[in-house]
Amino acid sequence: MKGNALRQVRTLAFFTALILCSTSCKDEEAASVGRDYDPSRPITLTSFYPVEGGARDKILLDGENFGTDHNQIKVYFNNKKAAIVSSSGNRIYAIVPRLPGENPSISVVIGEDSVAYDQHFNYTPQAQVTTVTGSGDREFVPGTLDQAHVCAKYLELDAEGNLFMTWRDGVGDEKFGVGRVSEAENLVTSMYLAASSPYPYANGITVDRTTGMMTVSHESVVEVFFSFDPREGWYPRQRNASFAGNHGIPTGDQYMNFVSFSPYDGYLYTRSRDGSVVRIHPDTYEATVVHKGSNTAGSKWPYGSQYGQGINPKKPWELWMTLHSNASPNEFRQGLMVLDLRPEHIDKGFRRVNATGGSGHRDGPLEDAVFNYPKDIKFDNDGNMFVADYGNHCIRMVSADGIVTTVAGQPGVSGYRDGGPIESMFNNPWGVAVNEQGDIYIADFGNSRIRKLVIE
């Protein structure tokens, strides 16, 4: 409600300013009607209004020599492109883009000319957390969104908005499953359900958003994974990866907790506990170890289990993951890691990108940021990464330019509450997924609910 009220005040102020200046600027703007941008003259920037706001807010950019064809004008907030409504020649009417980064610089680009305002825009993200489904009961029960019980750990979305989850309900004889949540159909359904024996222990999920094919990892057998094809109604099929020779992964370390589809080369990638990275062809299931694990002398890859794994769509050759507290050497524990999958880079191993120093909470530049048992990670289409910061009970965002912020939840305080970024509360969030519009879905494991974070 606070965010909506603030937006209403900003909108009223914007149109008040627009009305007040319309009379005084009438003669000046009338003279500019039909005037084209003149490349022989410089673009001049004078001021913009409002000086602060959030995504989808309206903004007026004043200056000279803009021209009146708004299709020829580009406006950027840092590197994010704004939508342009119109131009009078001396004034551009634009819409603030979503998540442009901290204190964005506004630049106007026309033809080969690019000019930036001296003053920066004060961008404030507006966020709201709501509950999608779940009652707080851990045992899975399908049904309508308001009646279903969920205990999801990992999440992923397809391009159609279907939300997939894996779970362990942890009640009595523990059950494992894969399910689908559809807000459009108001329905939670089971796609695969198994007791603790036989397997699988389903964990990480990945979706090829072009074909809709979903793949789910198997926790304990290196050769086995599961596919769900929407053309077959997502009927589960066991797939067996085929190695040309001995893969060399020790029996005790064949925990392939995650799988990720990379649009960079169209392959699936998974990692074992010993650090070996395996590439799998999604159609033939031919598998190759592309990076040796820590059992190999001189390996640059740490030993240890994972919490999460994801591919950056802006740089689809980047395989990201979070490492467990059992990682060794110790400096790799609870870290955000990245591996460059390109053949000329993969032998360089992975690198840790956030600060070492154990559990904690610190926002800021990624190299200084600290997390507390970070689990699943996912990216939006702009390359912003969202982290389920399990131990801090909050959701963190790593912007495309490497700045970490807390976007929802109260660091170090567990609870259950919907609302804005400051008042919202989580209890050990585990999984995250991001749809095509940039909305974030969260497996709020401790609360046995699925939540939704909308950032505008």
Automatic annotation (TrEMBL):
Keyword entries, A-Z: Repeat
PROSITE patterns attached to this UniProt entry: NHL
Repeat positions for NHL: 426-450
Gene3D superfamilies per UniProt: Immunoglobulins, TolB, C-terminal domain
Pfam families: NHL (PF01436), TIG (PF01833)
SUPFAM superfamilies per record: Calcium-dependent phosphotriesterase, E set domains
Residues of the IPT/TIG domain: 45-123
InterPro entries from the UniProt entry: 6-blade_b-propeller_TolB-like, Ig-like_fold, Ig_E-set, IPT_dom, NHL_repeat
Name assigned to this protein: IPT/TIG domain-containing protein
Species of provenance: Sphingobacterium corticibacterium
